[in-house]
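Repro:
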Amino acid sequence: MKRLRPTLVVLALCVLFLTPAWGAQSVVRILYVNDFHGFAEPYKPLGSGEKLGGIAYLAGRVDLLRSERPSLLLAAGDMIQGNNWANLFQGKSTIEAMNAMKFDAMVVGNHEFDFGQDVLRKRISEAGFPVLGANVGGFDALRPYVIKEVDGVRIAIIGVVTGDTPVSTHPRNVVGLKFDPPADAVRKYIGELRGKADIFVVLSHIGYAADRTLAESVKGIDVIVGGHSHTKLETPVQVDGTIIVQAWEHAKALGVLDLTVEDGRISAYQGRLEEIKPAAGGEDKAVMAIVEKYRDKVNKVLDEPIGTAEVDLDGENVRTRETNLGDLIADIMRKTSGADAALINGGSIRTSINKGRIRVKDVYSVLPFDNYIVAIKLTGARIREALEHGVSAVERGEGRFPQVSGITFTYVLSAPPGSRVRQVLIGGRPLEADREYSVATNDFLAAGGDGYKAFGDAVRSSKDFAVVGGMMKGEKLVYSDAGKWLRDVVIEYMKEHKSIAPVVEGRIKEVE
């Protein structure tokens, strides 16, 4: 027995060191951003005293955090469209910066489709990382998932985009595509990948509320990295065992989620948002060079001064209430078209203009979409239907919220969607259900975008309706100018008037 004991000790040590330990532990870091929208340079958000953001500064922070432990860098959609820095190059600048940052995966957002399918296909071909869209049918450039191994942990990343994409980009951009319910796609691929991955991450562009519902309805999701709703989740939220995170917008914050993984399961987690402030320095030099290269190109085109804002022009609250910038743009649309009224979706207005000198690039940032003005004959009943739709999701801050001109109306937020609108006046007189009025809008809403069926149905029912040379025609359309984008009309107005000082007039009021 005495001779056997040393032998047993040696055997025990061999077992200990030569076989995997049951309690093997890894800490995997997930870094994440969402809804970048091409905001490459720092800026002062409305009402803020300091600049936030800057993709080069965010990249510098990513470099530092990656050096601490094995990491993944993920993007939750709406990356290539929004600000002039991205729009003038149809997102090419964003992809170049993301390649320099070595992103591991990105899910397609609804606004990735805004330049059309051919451009999106080109951007995906340039990306040095997979672009995901498990619930998108008919677009083979998108992959449903990718599996990454990090410190011995197999992580399946499944990407899904909002099913509302056909109404939140111009309908022409998604012709022939099918958007399945995100839950169905996630459930399918979790089932298919069971045994091939340890951890399941859903890279989601469906919004925070929808992420919570997804966590409740689909079992087996470990983490949801979300986007679309621009939600600032300071710390992770857990719903039915699923960890949900989201990192605000415009590269103003970087999300950090550390997962402790034991035997292929998450045993603990910690997460936070880190605000990105250029004052702190630490920029990534290679990414900064890309930012400056494209910024110089933008400035050559868009640096022309066109007027002065005597007050801050609010483009940040356009999804929940009337704003002075919303009033101004709607007024310009109504006057340009000669219509009785005007209605534009708040989601088409993308940022604010601070008090002071206005340059061409400021208006391009506010109105980045290639939309033009149309005016449609609508009955009073259809106008009320449009207004009901506009306030049907105020509490969720969706882009359908209306900014109006020539119209005043009240609504009751506590009433059920579809029956919230109360008094409606056009030109100061009560709305008549059977009377036809001319209403100016943009071609996006005229095509039924953002779910505005009242416009889309009226246009399609128009006698001799057609789209000729990209311009809508038909007897219900009393104005249609596809030769001039809305932003250029606004620029002309500002050049003519020089001093801009709109005020909120009480056109939209919430009542009890």
